[in-house]
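S1.2 Input.
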Amino acid sequence: MDKKQTAVEWLVEQFDLTSNSPIIKNVVEQAKAMEKNQMKESVLAQSTKHEGLRKIFENQFEKYYNETYGK
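S1.3 Output.
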């Protein structure tokens, strides 16, 4: 399966933010983590309030995210 591109990855590409600056790399990684967390929380908020099922959905989301967007 071809990996898809997140919005943050697309933005980095558009602004050519792939420099070796540690500050830029850190900010980009933080933005990617925030984006992933927002995606996960939006899915889980709609799924269930039962803690056991929520954990299953969370694990499934992690698997989907990693397969779709890479780590």
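S1.4 Remarks. The helical segments are 7-14, 22-47, 51-69.
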